[in-house]
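PROTEIN DATA CARD
Card holder: Potassium channel domain-containing protein
Chain length: 377
Origin: Naja naja
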Amino acid sequence: MKSNMFPSQLKERTCCQVFWTIFPHACFICSLVIYALLGAVMFSHVEGCRESHEGETYRNNETKNEIFTNRTRDLINEIDFSWFTDPSQKWSFLGSLFFCCTVFTTVGYGHIYPVTRLGKYLCMVYALFGVPLMFLVLTDMGDILATILSISYNRARKLQSKVLARLSFRSCCKKSTDSKGGSASLGPAKTVLLEPLNIKDALKNNSSLKKKLGQNQNIEIFERLIIRENALLAPPKLTRFERWNSCPELDKGEMVNHVISSINNIGKEVEQLDVPFSLMTFIVFAYISCAATVLPNWERALNFEEAFYFCFITLTTIGFGDIKLQHPNFFLFLSVYIIVGMEIVIIAFKLGQDRILSLYKKLLFCIGQKNVSDKNT
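Structure generated from the sequence above:
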């Protein structure tokens, strides 16, 4: 009987393992498909149902209008707009530089592209090496940006905690003085320390604490704490980096190993970054808003909303090409802004990805608990 039950149990266990292996990936794919379907419904409703501003005389002649529209569409499809452009003006040095930036940043607006066969081949080879190089630069700069963000966020939290502690301390002091009629009524056992003391000072000023520790036989632990306090208060030792600066001939091999280890750790700071997603979203929109206020100064055809939309499409590397810059050479001066902005957006996407993964984990955990409870019942 047991031999007949064992294969069925093994088969059921294998099916469960396969199911739980495929289920998370299926959830991701289904979520993306649902997201695409919702977007298709939204844009078809918004863009497809817009009113057409045609004249009354143009509407009345429906048959002529249809014939004219079909012929015009056929002629436009046969037109190559590269015939009407001057290659020397379009492919100047700054224009070619702007094209290269759109290639390795994977933006690709579409208003400038290679026409010749050699240019297309060179574009593929250029993108083959430029895109990984751009991702490497973004990863390296992401570590620096993640370090700055984490340090700033931690210092802001420490400052906030200090301010709240001071406010609470002042409120407690006011309450104690109001309830007991001033500081003269305080007993000698209650002492308010305005500055934190180290362990030695606390031991000298409070003999009862030392007596109590002796009674409880914790002298050894207390001595260890004093040793640790002395080690923290001791001057810092000379690091290897300082020795390299003072004497470059020393530790050259270890310096090379340090550089190699730092190269191997590229991307670790971004992975370990832990700041609120709401804060990162605010930084992204504030960063884009700064460029959206500057861009209309030389692109007169754009207002703030269109410039914000254009900057968002650029930094997210979508690049529809629906908005064409009249002066793209000026936009090259914001190349550093684009690279930093792309990194900020990538970090925001990374944090959003972590939040989505945690949501999926909670969902899987709830489903697993529900299945276990159903099997037990």
